[in-house]
From TrEMBL:
Residues 6-169 form the NadR/Ttd14 AAA domain. Signal peptide: none annotated. Gene3D superfamilies: P-loop containing nucleotide triphosphate hydrolases (3.40.50.300). It comes from the Bacteria. This is AAA family ATPase. InterPro entries: NadR/Ttd14_AAA_dom (IPR038727), P-loop_NTPase (IPR027417).
């Protein structure tokens, strides 16, 4: 069987981490979202919101971490690896805030390709803000639009996961792989 590196994407608060946690509980190899780790590390150094204060630095750190996740996923003994957010997310967020980024960001999107991409739609009923998620729901919807545009630009077919129970969302994803 060919290695499947599958990315779950979607704007903030769409349920990605919940699904990743459930996939882990079912024994699947999964890589978590790393932006919270980057944000918390910066907060420990006195930078409240690194993405807002130094978006390029934040994005460079994310890009490096997501490339590492991709490379590590290739080395996993499991044939299926799920990743919470992918490399093109970095470009989508930079486009969302209107900042420029180096060509290396584009090259990374072209060089590291996921097998399948599942997108979770904005879902106001489950959306929650917290200390690392500063966006409101309207901003989350705008980010979603940038994610869709960016992934399509790099040739991905986005498989939309319906709004449903965690169990049914998991079954939907597993059925598609």
């Amino acid at each position: 069987m060919q290695k499947e590196i599958i990315v779950l994407l979607g704007g903030p608060g769409t349920g990605k981490s919940t699904l990743i946690n459930e996939l882990v509980a079912r024994g699947f190899c999964c890589y978590p979202e790393i932006s919270r780790q980057v944000t918390m590390k910066a907060q420990e150094q006195g930078i409240e919101q690194l993405f807002l204060e130094q978006p390029l630095l934040f994005s460079e750190m994310l890009l490096e971490g997501r490339i590492d996740q991709y490379k590590n996923a290739l080395e996993e003994p499991d044939n299926v690896v799920f990743i919470d957010r992918g490399i093109p997310d970095v470009v989508a967020y930079m486009d969302y805030i209107g900042d420029e980024y180096p060509e290396s960001f584009v090259k990374a999107c072209e060089d590291y390709k996921y097998s399948k991409t599942f997108i979770l739609p904005p879902w106001e009923e489950i959306y929650q803000s917290d200390s690392e998620r500063y966006e409101n729901f309207d901003q989350a919807v705008k980010i979603q639009e940038h994610l869709v545009e960016t992934y399509k630009k790099y040739g991905y077919e986005l498989i939309e996961v319906p709004k449903d129970t965690v169990e049914n969302r998991i079954l939907y994803i597993l059925d598609k792989i």
